[in-house]
Amino acid sequence: MKTIAIASGKGGTGKTSLAVALHLANIDRSRLLDCDVEEPNCHLFLQSESHSSQPVQIPIPQVDLAKCKLCGKCVRACQFNALAVAGKAGVLVFEELCHSCGGCVRACPHGAITETLHQIGCVTQSLTKLGGELVTGTLTIGNASAPSVIRAVKRTMPLVDREYTIVDSPPGTACTFVAAVDAADFVILVTEDTPFGLNDLKLAIEALHNMDLPFGIVINRLQQNGSLVRDYCQKEHYRILLEIPDSRIVAETYARGGTLLDAMPELRRPLRVLLENCHET
Amino acid sequence: MVVAFSTDGENLDSNLDARFGRCRNFLVLDVASGDFKVLENSQNLNAAQGAGIQSAQNVIASGAQALVTGHCGPKAFKVLQAAGIPIYLGEEKSIRSLVEDFRNGKLEQLTSPDVEGHW
């Protein structure tokens, strides 16, 4: 089984549009994971029925004030400033800053810290009407630990047996991006054909170089009279996997809840070839 | 009474720094004797998160019984309140003149955080 992540430095370049279309064009051989857990939206385009929903929980320290000697070793061990000794009032835990590393538990010489599980989101597995599988991660509003939910989505056991797993990643190049593309066999970077798109494409390429992950580029909303991104990719010898023209029909279809494939059925064949080309050259 | 002031300077003529979590120094003054010490808070200048929480602990560790600063967010407020340290709001003027205001009861005491986190 191969995992193909769809990512982009910039938001709004067409990651979800491409991920959904790629999944639909390869419905017989792909699953779709929506790892944009802060605002998952693949389900809007796929008629699906929830099969199961599992909570995502992370360990958070709990301090037993009867055992705590207020020594502050846990506070110094915490790299995220999530703990505070408030004088004689004891140790305060700021859950929203905690990264669940467990460092404070190990640093406490008095055995005063244990961990309790807190729910920060959920993972929903669904079967779509067309016979595909969609897994959606949702981070509970107010929480910041998106990577934990993303990893939980990627750990799900498949409901259906498929050759490819397509991962729709969150935008940007921060830790959520890293969690989504981590361990992928190949990354498709979607970019729009604008100076902003090109700038953020370069950031995403730099991040993937650091992670030593193979990638190819899909140029969305291609400008007919001179493409900035195409020129850049040719100069740097990056692979262009697909070019999607700038089209009003795509926007109109999307606004009505339709997919890229609804607007451009002729993309079905190229999208099947695209998935087969997702490997190192 | 020992009072801590957030500041980017090192003496009584330095101005108050309106920021609490990411101020450079705390000037900790014994109002009765006039003795003071300056504590660095610089490790918090570049903290990715939780600067207010750590600054609050620095104030507690300094032995201060009250704090004068420009603004205070919810997490720092929670730590200082738990430790029983009252927070007074001051303008960005010299610590010397703020000490006078403090003595004369002219500084407003905070009863809740006056700014959001990451202010």
Oligomer: heterodimer
**For the CA atoms, what is the radius of gyration of chain B?**
13 Å
> What would the principal axes of the Cα set say about the shape of chain A?
elongated
Task: List the total number of helices of chain A.
Answer: 10
* Largest β sheet strand count, sense and barrel closure of chain B: 6 strands, mixed
Describe the structure.
- The complex is a heterodimer of chains A (281) and B (119).
- The longest helix of chain A has 17 residues, at 195-211.
- In chain A, helix 6 links the parallel strand 9 and strand 10 (215-222).
- In chain A, the strands form two sheets. In chain A, strands 3-6-7-2-8-1-9-10-11 form a nine-stranded mixed beta sheet, sandwiched between helices.
- Chain A starts with a strand and ends in a 5-residue tail after the last helix.
- In chain A, helix 1 crosses helix 10 (268-276) and helix 4 runs parallel beside helix 5.
- Chain A has ten helices and eleven strands.
- Chain A is of the alpha/beta class and 281 residues long.
- With 119 residues, chain B is an alpha/beta fold.
- Chain B is 24% helix and 22% strand.
- Chain B is built from three helices and six strands, in the order E-E-E-H-E-H-E-H-E.
- Chain B has helices at residues 51-61, 74-82, 95-103, and strands at residues 2-7, 25-30, 36-40, 66-69, 87-89, 108-109.
- Chain B has a six-stranded mixed beta sheet, with no helix packed on it.
- The mean pLDDT of chain B is 93.
- Chain A binds chain B through residues 75, 80-82, 84-90, 92, 94, 97, and chain B through 47-51, 53-54, 56-57, 60, 75, 78-80, 82-85.
